[in-house]
Please model this.
Amino acid sequence: MFGERMKLPVNGTKISVQNNKLVVPDNPILGYIEGDGIGPDITRACLRIWDMAVKQAYNGKRKIHWAELFMGEKAAGKFNGNYFPDETIDALKEIIVSIKGPLTTPVGGGFRSLNVSLRQVLDLYACVRPVRYYSGVPSPMRHPEQVDIVLFRENTEDVYSGIEYQSGSPEMRKIEKFLKEEMGATFFDDAGIGIKPISPFGSKRLVRKAIQYAIDNNRKNVTLVHKGNIMKFTEGAFRNWGYELAREEFGDSTITEDELWDKYDGKQPEGKIVIKDRIADITFQLMQLRPTEFDVLATTNLNGDYLSDAIAAEVGGMGIAPGANIGEHVAVFEATHGTAPKYSNLDKVNPGSLLFSGVSMLEYIGWTEAAELIKTNYPKVIEKKIVTYDFARQMENATEVSTSGFADALIEQIEKG
Ligand code: NAD
Model:
């Protein structure tokens, strides 16, 4: 997989997994995929910031050795038109922890989306979106600082499973006949048909990750978000399997919301995480009205898709919202926005989304001190109103800087401490 076209750094050591845990050396090799469109601009800026944060946090005792991996247009250039080389997939598995910029999906390239394919082939079943507010960032909320949520969205099933039949197709006719004649279902003729599989296996492994995260990060509650009032055997089952998993595998460290009131009079006991559930539509509302009631969310695929973007908007929008797709151990951190082609190579856009995805990556490998340096110094730069164009147009008297100019300002701030 590594060779002439894709090189492994000579000095670093690969991360490994022992006893189901990551073992991270002081000189780990991490992968990065620049991405298309604005990807190279934001990646260049962020690599400088992450490296500086690590250097400052550990006085040079720790250092990331970056392996550039290829996917998207840059891969096509190196791998004979292949946007999605097997070599890169193998490298992502071998290196375990990587980060990527946005990718263009080639029209007619045989892919629904490179991102979706990546999640599928690596079985990255949890899409993780941390959403919190950084002081100074323009927000439509009166109290955006109340939002501090980590959303775990199931990434592999639900209506994203790709089981869909076009209106009028022979496959659709076959299913229509079966459903109407054998199952007694009623629906309008010629309806396109999509299938929404939600399994105990898929639901439980996602909820397990969410609860484990809550335990590891001293979070107070995990909310199972679903639409089980309408879709009982899929969304409702997700909720039921979530509670079942919590009881069976985390019985010592969790209580349900009912138990909180019945046994503890509403006072959360030390060391116990509250597991509760909310219907998806009301969650959207509560996320604006009472965000402090939420901490970690576990959602089905489609609900999580909508909800993660809606919550991100509360704290500054897609230009700053980070994300990751995580499997059993392999993790690909990523900017959540697209390639914004009209801004390609203009050194103009906000590096925030990729930057904070990298912060999550540092936390994932246990380098929390470096992550913290970025988290504490970022708002100091924003409060000085040194921002890229997207924030500048929402602020008064802002100093608009380029992507690299923002990186310079943040690096200077980190160095000053
Ligand atoms: P987009 O996110 O690329 O851009 C929409 C708009 O959002 C831009 O025009 C810009 O105004 C703004 N924007 C995006 N990122 C920004 C940033 N970092 N800073 C400031 N402003 C920013 O969405 P799109 O135009 O719908 O998609 C363009 C391409 O990106 C498509 O090919 C699509 O397939 C791809 N895409 C990739 C990913 C991914 O790789 N994760 C995600 C979404 C879309």
User: Anything to note?
Assistant: The first helix runs from residue 39 to 58. Residues 283 and 377 are 32 Å apart (CA to CA). Residues 38, 102-105, 115, 318-319, 334, 337-340, 342, 349-350, 353, 390 surround nicotinamide-adenine-dinucleotide (CB under 6 Å). The first strand starts at residue 16 and ends at 18.
